[in-house]
Prior knowledge:
By secondary structure, this protein is α/β, with parallel strands linked by helices. It folds into 2 domains: 2-94, no CATH class; 114-372, NAD(P)-binding Rossmann-like Domain (Rossmann fold). The chain has helices at residues 71-74, 123-134, 146-157, 173-187, 210-238, 259-279, 322-335, 340-353, 365-382, and strands at 8-13, 20-22, 26-29, 36-41, 51-52, 57-61, 64-68, 76-78, 80-85, 114-118, 138-143, 163-167, 192-195, 242-247, 284-290, 357-359. 38% of the residues are buried.
Amino acid sequence: MFVRPGSVVSRICFPTAPKRLLQQYRHEADVTWAQRDVRFQGESGHDADWLSLPSLTQTGHGARRRIQIDPGQWSRQVDAFELKLHKLTEPVVSTEANCKSNGNTHMQDLTGRTAFITGAASGIGLGIATALSQAGVKVMLCDIEEEALTTAVEKLKLTNADVDGVRADVSLKAEIKAAADATVSRYGRVHILVNNAGVAGGRGYGHWTDAGWDWVLGVNLMAVIWGIEIFGPLIEAHGEGGQIVSTASVFGLIAGGSPQYDVSKYGVVALSEGLRKALAPRRIGVSVLCPGVVRTQIVNSSRNVPRRFAGKIGSLPPTEGPVADAIKAFQHRTNNGIDPLYVGELVREAIENDWPYIFTDTEHEAMIDRRFAAIKQGFDRIRGRTPRR
Ligand SMILES: NC(=O)c1ccc[n+]([C@@H]2O[C@H](COP(=O)([O-])OP(=O)(O)OC[C@H]3O[C@@H](n4cnc5c(N)ncnc54)[C@H](O)[C@@H]3O)[C@@H](O)[C@H]2O)c1
């Protein structure tokens, strides 16, 4: 659809749920604008007036901009509203996506869907929970840290978000199952699974222990496998489609300095790539999130060593020397890392558009290219030879 400057560009209707509480609204378009107006329909006294919206904010990147109505100021009962953009630099806006579901992803409109997110009390998980709840998704936050979980849920509730929390140690399958049961009894249908809980732990060559491998692989990989095993059928059962997002890392595509972490993250990438094809006919999209350096508490992962592994992970990392320096440098980098809410917004966009890979930035792209080039060289070395059979 093509529109002229100053015309009404978007009439948003709610065909399935009239008179819903409009908590926030996002609109994405290839435009820039100087002023935005909105008018609501369905609420007495506000039917026809155009209201100026100074509280509208623009976020996003490149040509895609996101308009967001501040929920506190504009929460109201509506069954439709229209948005008018002024001073369009380019008179091109597509409004198609707003009321239709996308045939490929089934998740274009996230409003009213339910998400289950692990590791949601902190960092990236909390960023994803925030971004999804801002899009009108009902979110069950899951985490091992009870106090942080309660705080996160309380803070999100203050923004009118429909969220709840369930404590679970995701390295125990029975606890994921119990969390899934709690989610179903709280919200009914689940559409989005975000396997995000993760720990950077374990020790390097010469220092690793079985408990260290069990802990890191349990949280970072087995929990993802069990999450998909438990939530996959729940998403499939209602037939409305859904999305599974699992947090790996750029270290799921290049090996860094931590064997347990790298193995677990390569596993998450492999699992996601493989299941993407298998689950597409079941109307479940599969995405893998490969963040770079994000401002979170990941360096302090040992706060979450489950009791059964306490004291068995291996000797504590040195406080002096090259290893200690590397840890300090990484801590400094995460302290200055990417905003977790920015990552959450990328994940929201990825779910809406069924992205296979979600990267947060291009910092590690050249390293990944070098890995692929090295693999290619491996083929080049034996090219032209005929294997003996
Ligand atoms: N921060 C980064 O730079 C970065 C980069 C790449 C990937 N990641 C990945 O992002 C994910 C989120 O980590 P983050 O960086 O936000 O760190 P974080 O420590 O801030 O958050 C991790 C969350 O997982 C929870 N958790 C840990 N063990 C758990 C368990 N057994 N059961 C349930 N919950 C558990 C923690 O309590 C915490 O709330 C992880 O998978 C991590 O590997 C982070």
